[in-house]
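Input.
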Amino acid sequence: MPKAKIAGIGFYVPEKEVKNADLSQYMETSDEWIKERTGIEARRFAVKHKETTSTMGAKAAEIAIQRAGINKEDVDFIIFATLSPDYYFPGCGVLLQRELGITKTEIGALDIRNQCTGFVYGLSIADQFIKSGMYKNILLVGAEMHSMGLDFSTTGRNVTVIFGDGAGAVVIQPSEDESGILTTKLHSDGSYAEKLSFMSPGSHGGYHSEHLEEKVDYGWPDKDQPAEIFVTEKMMKDGHFYPYMEGPFVFKLAVQKFPQVIKEALDEVNMQASDINLLVPHQANLRISQFVQKRLGLSDDQVVNNIQKYGNTTAASIPIALCEAWENGRVKKGDLVCLAAFGSGFTWGSALIKW
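Output.
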């Protein structure tokens, strides 16, 4: 059974850089306040009404395809991970296909919604398809355009200051040698789904209020009447259509699950944390990455952190960080590379790759 390898990688971030101080014109915050809590110094925002999640994904994909030494027409399957799609439906996979101009081949396109762990989940899916022999050139994209859906007021600052826009992509192919994906580990626990979520608008009709500590009135019609409205006036007034995060709870769980899922992958291939040449964690919070680094006993040279420049780009963060590290010569042939993520759901996962 062949291994699956990353044959080409690329990333794209918008030109517009938004520094911490720039956000102070919209909300009560400061450079010091943001850096102390997140480690973030700046992020990139896409050009509204001109760039979208899928167009950014296409730019990253074109680079990955070129570096893989193939043509766009050689791609035989698309996997697109995002929590900020262009449309509620259809998903970004088919929009990416159209953007790349490869609709004539009528290849399959799969959209996955695993938020911060989306890229790791997508990598695991691609790994299985390659091993089975079903596909030979899988295009995996993680892309986000958060700036179109954030609360730029003091009320929403705890979430808004964290996120940025961008895209990363890889081409997955069968390996011809010992390089490739050694193992992937995926987990989830929906017990506390609402602790990090974007709940409205949605089809729940207020259902998830039962899972919150305080009941929320979304202004939905009486439960015995047909639902005639998707977005209510009260929902708009109270700002219930913005992301919600209970930061301390998420942090506590993340620093627990990150090391566990990394160790799980290492144990399967009889390796130790010291064998890792490069750890590429999801760029959620610099403090989380530093905590995990310390727990695993890794040096600064063994860990990639670029959240300082780009913020949290969710499904795009791992491929962006991995590509930037590769471009800077930090990833070499034969290196053991570990990818790990934790996010909304809650979901978490890891992947070990022999480069």
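The radius of gyration is 20 Å.
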